[in-house]
Amino acid sequence: MWHLETGIGALVVATGLGAAAVLAGPDSMRWWLLGLVLVGCAGAAVVVPQWRYRVHRWEVSANAVYTQRGWWAQERRIAPMSRVQTVDLAQGPLARLFGLATVTVTTASAAGPLQIEGLDRPVALALVDELTRKADLVEGDAT
Amino acid sequence: MSLPPPPPSPPLAPPVADPEAWHRLDPRMLLVHPIKEVGKFLPVLLGLVVAGSASGVGPWALLGVGLPVGLGVVRYLTTTYRLAGGRVELRRGLLQRHTLSTPVDRVRTVDLTASPIHRVLGLATVVIGTGSVASDGGERLELDALPQPEATRLRAELLHTTTGTDATGTDATGTDATRTDATSPGAGTDPEHVVARFSPRWLWYAPFSGTVLVGLGAIVGVGFQLVESVEIRVTEDDLAAIGQSFVLTLVVAAVVLVTLLAVGGYLVTNGGFVLSRHGAAWHVRRGLLTRRETSIDVARLAGVSLGEPAALRLAHGRRVGAIVTGLSGSQASSAVLLPPAPRTTGYDVAAAVLGTAGPVTGDLRSHGRAAITRRYTRALLGALPLVAAVVAAVLAGAPGWLLATAAVPVGAALVLAWDRARALGHAFLDGHVAMRSGSALRSRDLLRASHVIGWNQRATWFQRRAGLVSLAATTAGGKGQIRVPDVPVEAAIALAEAATPALVGQFLEER
Q: ipTM value of the model?
């Protein structure tokens, strides 16, 4: 899925940059620039999803959720189960094509939603159930 | 104009005795609303009056005055509130009725605001902050307005304090309120405990609070605009005639003007500032003309942000803000605990609010060589484009002495980096997470460990190579997080482990 998403993104960028290169570049270098842009975007489309996939982790323990995502800038987030406020499950059109889903765990903080992308739908459903149950056990208003 | 609030059930009971009754706002608002509305409608009214006198139709103008007055009456008649069954409820609107309702234990802050008109009439507007995201416009719990004693009593009930010896004193209705949900633990006859009080000396810090720079920028901008729009044809003679002294006078005048404005603004906003603890809430009272009283529930106070921007540090001043659960950045004015004031006062206030002085003045752990190196490289990289531009200009044929100007950005970058590197620090002191970073807008954020919701660690490829992460402790208040860049990985884990035991450790083997 990421391959496809990044591929689409890269295609858009490539078209934009390519058009700019063709229109604005000096005559002699025009096609060179275009080629450079295309190769760069294609490379990114192949490498970035792989990289992202290798980084991407998540784990749920008895009292906390942990995610790790990103590629160039990697981010790790930890939220204790007692502070979980909502658990969302979302499926975009592309994700539905592949039978995948994204689980988002929000806390009371404006800065800390935890996203787990690209889970198999059954796994995601089970995860949502598990998180909801565990978060339910804890008293308090989670702030 | 004395419309008595008609409580239906007991005919002669005072409104307080019947907790279920819907209360009206104060009838004196019938005076305030028309004045405000007339102000709003003033252009229209003027137009009407002119049209009326021109065409000789008198009644039109009368209608124009009648409309705002009518609006005020309608608003008064349709707005009711009550505090019952542990909920605050507010009904308003004639055509589109709103009923807002919130549990009392979700009330985070209570603001009492009194504009000059309100103060003349002894009224105050009560704004109840509940931490709802949609707390603007129509969804705000705003009671405009109640009599001052009634407002203080309501605030006391909402925040579970009791009205002991309040500054307003005239507390007649509140004492006989024997309400079950207003009994607060141990706040019985707690006197108001004043922590900081405005002193004229604080005015010295006003020009250093950043507004001056903004104001100067604005003046320069406006000046350029004027010059451009007027399009003066400047000749050599004119330039000679202007002379240096004139320019100098202009600059000095601008600086003086802006400084005066800053001091005046500071005085109007913060005059009569008092920070006090009263039962289980902090009260901040300030404002020379429009009196604002903010109350923050102690249990919701997640931490304190000690603002020490560069200019203010030069003047040995500090400012203090509160990190309050459920108050986001957009409601920042509610979270001011201390305007720019002397450093010692700032420290005292922060220590008093946190209940311990350790986190405020305690030493922070610095972040080591790698982080410092990173500060310098980043600052110098920022200066690089400017240097490159100068070099390019010289290469393109500009005079060689221009090269010297390239030293300016480099020097500035070095100073900035030095200051930023010095500022970096973090620690876990007395149950508080302390983080400090920044230079021009440096601040030291102190967050109670029990209010830490989670941890975010972010590292780019360069940071990972240097073994650093940007660490953020998330919380439900303020900006949602307090963060500090470039913590060594082990130190970051140690800090998280100290503040929230048994949370980070279980995931450690993966790191």
A: 0.72
